[in-house]
């Protein structure tokens, strides 16, 4: 792949705990992932992004990192991670890892040192009393008291103390961590909570000094050539968002406006246009994201009366017509894959898995659940171990009992069941990603006007993508049908369906 492979890549997100379990302890691991690399190759993706794989007490699914230079023993070893990187590379699959610079774990060496020795607290935010009334993003106060009476700041769970980025040691540490992994051949880094690092009296979101950090990180990444920095930047203001993508900062960032957008033609058109308008002038490729490990699965979201994504579990349990949601998720997948830039596929999206909304409360593990006093169900419902094969749980996930239970209804959604079904979601993704490699990816689009309910555009290769979000069927522009998310009706494109046309 070229220097700029990331501009048009299809990136598959692996939530390691729930991908495939190689040693039978009920938790996904590197052995499981390595054994399934042929599946990912066959799916047609160009890169894998893994959620944090470091030693961690798992207070927040691994986003509480105890050691940035090793692998969580439940997942495997550093030697295995290195093998995984080279095996992926042999298959021409790039590897992107997650780096968490905003906060650490209370089990990290630095934090333990800070607890034992008050003079070693400068890498975190300690004070004699809470300096403000900030609330943790997971609920409750953002300050927790330690036995000697001081308090420390944690924007997330108390087990995730925030680093103090006014301390040069913190800067140096993360440059070293970047080099540690770049030296081991990783092709990119996804930066967790990227806009939150800098704190001041006025707040912590998107403060200007954060850009100095990423300018430096870009210098480091550039020393290695073909590497990519990807920001997790949730910001409503597109101009502020675009500042992270200036030529000397991050290469790309997740498009959460697209992910959150309701299934509505005008809203989607607005988000796509705004995305292109902010990215094009700075030469950064847009990204198209439908889901990840933090949000409601699209099949469930698109089947609800309110199809937007809302944080805080606000829509959890509201009725969902899963058949309708599934139909729309298929249409959305082809739309996302056709847009210019890179596209993300969160594991299980290619199987059309719905959100699991009826997990028993005592099994919920996401700190959001406990910290909100149970008012927010948390994110476990999109993190259920994948169904690979067989007629009953654990559906080939591994020999043991999966760390979160899989629903009975997933029998029909296993990889094995979908592989031979030409009309399955899995085959839609496979065919779509295959065509995408040849005809789509980086570039531009030209809109076609097919009325207010239809999103239609032609890409540089001549491929036309048409999505009908209206109530009734619509006629198609000229072209050969290359792929459709649903059956055409007498040559017309039905509601909630996307078609790809090539020039005839
Ligand atoms: C990011 C991650 C999320 C995690 C949080 C704190 O938003 O995607 O899973 O809980 O950061 O690290």
From TrEMBL:
Q: Which GO terms describe its biological process?
A: oligosaccharide catabolic process
Keyword annotations for this protein? Answer: Hydrolase
Keyword Hydrolase set for record? yes
Q: Which domain of life is it from?
A: Bacteria
What Pfam families does the record point to?
Answer: Alpha-amylase (PF00128)
Domain Glycosyl hydrolase family 13 catalytic: where? 13-383
Q: Does the keyword Heme apply?
A: no
- SMART domains per UniProt: Aamy
Q: GO molecular function of the protein, one example?
A: alpha-amylase activity
Gene3D superfamilies to which the protein is assigned, alphabetical: Glycosidases, Oligo-1,6-glucosidase, Domain 2
PANTHER family assigned to the protein according to its UniProt record, in alphabetical order:
ALPHA-AMYLASE FAMILY MEMBER, NEUTRAL AND BASIC AMINO ACID TRANSPORT PROTEIN RBAT
> What family name appears in the similarity comment?
Belongs to the glycosyl hydrolase 13 family.
* Descriptive protein name: Glycoside hydrolase family 13 protein
Tell me which species this is from.
Answer: Nonomuraea zeae
């Amino acid at each position: 792949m070229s220097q700029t492979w990331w501009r048009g890549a299809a990136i598959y997100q692996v939530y390691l705990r729930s991908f495939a379990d190689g040693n039978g302890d009920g938790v996904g691991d590197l052995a499981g992932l390595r054994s399934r690399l042929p599946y990912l190759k066959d799916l047609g993706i160009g890169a894998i992004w893994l959620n944090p794989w470091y030693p961690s007490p798992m207070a927040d699914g691994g986003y509480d990192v105890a050691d940035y230079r090793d692998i969580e023993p439940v997942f495997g070893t550093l030697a295995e991670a290195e093998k995984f990187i080279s095996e992926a590379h042999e298959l021409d699959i790039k590897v992107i890892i997650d780096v968490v610079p905003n906060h650490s774990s209370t089990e990290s060496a630095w934090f333990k040192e800070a607890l034992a020795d008050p003079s070693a607290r400068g890498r975190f935010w300690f004070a004699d009393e809470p300096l403000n009334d900030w609330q943790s993003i997971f609920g409750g106060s953002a300050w927790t008291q330690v036995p000697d009476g001081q308090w420390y700041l944690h924007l997330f769970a108390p087990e995730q103390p925030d680093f103090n980025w006014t301390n040069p040691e913190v800067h140096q540490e993360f440059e070293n961590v970047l080099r540690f992994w770049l030296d081991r051949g990783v092709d990119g880094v996804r930066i967790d909570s990227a806009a939150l690092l800098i704190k001041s009296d006025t707040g912590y979101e998107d403060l200007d000094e954060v850009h100095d950090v990423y300018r430096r990180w870009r210098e480091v990444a550039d020393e290695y050539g073909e590497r990519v920095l990807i920001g997790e930047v949730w910001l409503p203001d597109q101009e502020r968002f675009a500042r992270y993508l200036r030529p000397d900062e991050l290469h790309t960032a997740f498009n959460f406006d697209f992910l959150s957008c309701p299934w509505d033609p005008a809203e989607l058109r607005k988000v796509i246009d705004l995305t292109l308008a902010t990215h094009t002038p700075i030469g950064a490729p847009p990204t198209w994201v439908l889901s990840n490990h933090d949000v409601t699965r699209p099949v469930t979201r698109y089947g609800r009366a309110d199809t937007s994504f809302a944080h805080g579990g606000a829509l959890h349990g509201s009725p969902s017509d899963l058949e309708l949601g599934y139909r729309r998720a298929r249409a959305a997948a082809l739309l996302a894959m056709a847009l210019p830039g890179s596209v993300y596929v969160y594991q299980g999206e290619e199987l059309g898995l719905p959100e699991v909304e009826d997990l028993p409360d005592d099994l919920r593990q996401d700190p959001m659940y406990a910290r909100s006093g149970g008012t927010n169900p948390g994110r476990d419902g999109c993190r259920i171990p994948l169904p690979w094969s067989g007629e009953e749980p654990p559906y080939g996930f591994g020999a043991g009992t999966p760390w979160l239970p899989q629903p009975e209804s997933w029998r029909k959604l296993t990889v094995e069941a979908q592989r031979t079904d030409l009309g399955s979601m899995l085959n839609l993704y496979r065919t779509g990603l295959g065509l995408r490699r040849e005809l789509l990816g980086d570039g531009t689009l030209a809109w076609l006007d097919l009325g207010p309910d239809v999103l239609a555009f032609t890409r540089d290769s001549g491929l036309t993508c048409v999505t009908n979000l209206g109530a009734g069927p619509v006629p198609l522009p000229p072209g050969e049908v290359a792929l459709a998310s649903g059956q055409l009706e007498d040559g017309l494109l039905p509601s909630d369906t996307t078609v790809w046309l090539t020039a005839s």
